[in-house]
Amino acid sequence: ITWTSTNESTLFESVPSNILSTKTNVFDTYTNPTTKKYNVLLKQQTTEDAIKGVKSEDTFTYDGLVDSDSSYGLRTQSVARKFSGTTLQGTTTTTTTYDNNPTGEGNAYYIGRPSTINTTTAISTGDSRSASETYTYTGANLTKTEKTGHNTSYAIVEEMTYDNVGNLLTKKVS
Q1: For 3-13, what is the mean pLDDT?
Q2: Per residue in 67-91, pLDDT tens?
Q3: Which of 22, 60, 70, 168 is most buried, with most CB under 10 Å away?
Q4: How far is 27 from 59, CA to CA, in rounded Å?
Q5: What's this model's pTM, rounded to 2 decimal places?
Q6: Letter string b/e over residues 8-30, b meaning 16 or more CB atoms within 10 A of that residue's CB
């Protein structure tokens, strides 16, 4: 059984009860009154599987409102909450920071280049885990990644070199 609605008159009616799985998206829209820049951003996504009895609620935060000069519609945080029935089983929060250089020219221009990604997962038993990733760029090329897991000061480091046109030449993992 599939149920969808894009008809405004039925959009907010309740979902039929005999559906096996559903995915519901909630969007925010922003319009800058001066520049007329318009964004549609996914704010929340809920997925339910009636057969397995599981539900996932994901919420998203972005780099600002469209009326901000520094807003590019980049997702800065996502929070995923997983349920079994109505019992929360765990939450994963991912926070991303980006480097932007909108005034650069050529390979000095970039928007949305990830610089760090931090992830924290907490489960219903009270246990939690964290991880981080750091990215380093030279020009337009990703030249180094550092990935650190939970409770460790050691990182997996990847170092890359490129030729003059951006083709990957070497990749060293340590």
Answers
A1: 58
A2: 676 788 899 999 999 999 999 999 9
A3: 60
A4: 10
A5: 0.83
A6: eeeeeeeeeeeeeeeeeeeeeeb
